[in-house]
Amino acid sequence: MRVNSSHRLLFDGGTSVPFLETPNKHGTLAGGKPKYIIIHYTASGSANSAINVFRNPSHRASAHLVLGHDGAITQMARLNEKCWHAGQSRWGGLTGLNSHSVGIEIANWGWLEGGNGNWKSHVGTRVDDSRVIEATHRNGGRFLGWEIYDEAQVTTCADMVRAIADRYELGPEHVLGHDDISPLRKQDPGPAWHMEKFRSFVFGRSDDTGDVELRYQVSSATGLNLRNGPGVAHDVIKLLSDNTEVLQIESNGAWWLVSELVGGDADITGWVHSNWLRRM
Question: Are 215 and 261 a contacting pair, CB within 8 Å?
Fold first, then answer.
């Protein structure tokens, strides 16, 4: 992906990302370009519900980009325009981050209540146990359920953020959550979004381990798809269960070629999305 001179997001082939303009915006960002990228969850079940809210002038809320469960992107404002996604916020000596940032809304319910077999969103919608992790937010609060993010959402969001960062010369320190800039008010994107790992997927990481084997464990209650190529378009070879040990062989951005370790020896080899791996 890339961002063109009109501040529109384009796919790799040059086709524009679908654009549904929000009326809920005002003027341009300070300095004419974003200084930060803010990640949000929609607190709704679908991208369309958020898009409908952002197209309604009475709601006075908006974001530049909305990302669906399947990775579908909708752009709702040019990336140099001021949207209304941050609210009362502060970061890096700046207040009112609406004037300084691009907002990305990812379809996700966020926090859930009810327990196993009965997880529900804040509006009472049931969420399957397989889509829930349990955690306390790093900013405090109760031990709650949180809807997980889909593989396609993480992959596509990384592509979008990389394109925006390249266009406006931003680094990993410029990618934040709503819970960073408004910690007393907001919890999104929440514990199910691994921000430090996400930044490393977008911008790369340095590793001076030389020839030391890089062993990881699957960190996903629902398992991790092992595919025959780097991307969700490739077929699934096997579902690796939580805590499965793997050996990293090579990487293609956020996608890693790994071998499953069985009894300490390499077994099946394939590609996984590294968001769901933790270093051993």
Answer: yes
> For 55-79, how does the pLDDT look when each residue is reduced to its tens digit (9 = 90+)?
999 999 999 999 999 999 999 999 9
- Among 280, 9, 22, 276, CA closest to 155: 276
Residue type (1 letter), 200: S
Which pairs from 197-201 meet CB under 8 Å and 24+ separation? 197/274, 197/275, 198/39, 198/154, 198/157, 198/158, 198/275, 199/172, 199/175, 200/172, 201/154, 201/158, 201/253, 201/254, 201/274, 201/275
Task: Give the burial class of 216: count Cβ atoms within 10 A of its Cβ; 0-12 exposed, 13-18 middle, 19 or more buried.
Answer: buried
Residue count (the chain): 280
Tokens of 195: 């921000």
Cβ–Cβ < 8 Å for 236, 226: yes
Facing residues of 156 across strands? Answer: none
The two structure tokens encoding residue 250? 């090579």
Verdict on whether the full-model pTM lies above 0.85: no
